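Q: Hi! First time doing this. I have a protein sequence and I read that you can turn it into a structure. Is that right? Here it is:
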Amino acid sequence: MKAKDDNQRRSGEAAVEVTEGERPTLKTIAFMAGLGVTTVSRALKDAPEIGQATKNRVQLIAKQIGYRPNRAGVRLRTGKTNVISLVLNAQSSIMGLTSNMVYGISEVLSQTPYHLTVTPYSLENDPMQPIRYIVETGSADGIIMSRTEPDDPRVRYLTEHGIPFATHGRTEMGIEHPFHDFDNEAFAYLSVKSLLARGRRKIAMLAGPSPAVTYYRHLDRGFSRSIEEGGAVGVTFSGIDVDTSLGRIRDRMEEIMTGPNRPDGIVCCSGGAAIALVAGIEAAGLKIGEDVDLVSKQSTDVLKWFRPQIIVFNEDVRHAGRELARAVLRRIAGVDARELQSLSYPDEHELR
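A: Yes, that's right. Below is the predicted 3D structure, encoded as structure tokens:
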């Protein structure tokens, strides 16, 4: 009798349509699959006691009818939001940083029940503000954030409140936490070496705003070590850094390159800033690759099309997004933070 009922329900599968504007539910899938609601729910959660053929059929129906779990219902049942929040400063959109980071995170989350929200903030505002908001409103199960500081109050706050998170960048505060970072010390060291190999002796670097951000310290250590080993002269850029507006970088660079102590080699840690530097250099009547060499990091392939003479290191921000997503998900699952720390390294073979 049960088999007959199941066959009748399956035979009605083709006739079931979700009315436009009506939200598909577990009951909708159950009716179409000829299964109970509990079985459907477990199949969608990939429960081990449900057969693979049943899981495949249920998941296919769910995809075809556009089923999405009701977040409010999930939160009531489990206390979870199924949301990961990416907290980024508004300027990170330059040269595709935000889009590549979001793409990488989304690649990983697409295979899970989690959804991504982006929480922007301005560099002029308190970076703690969006973090407090997310925690106090319970609007995300985990947080991904960037621009870490050596003693980062956000890391301390989230650790004290037991909120899973991962950082794009490291800290120096004695708190073990998940992170993924690019080895900026190695990047700066290798960049100076590439300039020395081209006979450049007066070398400057456009880096972060100050030692207040950790990656600035890493860049400075690599730059200073390579300058000292090569017996070169380090030239200081005054009045500009990678947070300065591109127009101001361009104008200040023109001033510097028409002055008496101009560098003949430059290291830049931002693809967007590198374009502004080139504009200023050329406005001063100089040529990249002849009068001055420029080494820059980039997160997209724009610079090699813009000026082939620029020496380029690639930072795979999409890969960073994937690593950060995996780290925060595993942290939510209770994995030790020390197992969720990774680095990407510049490749000398990428030099062009």
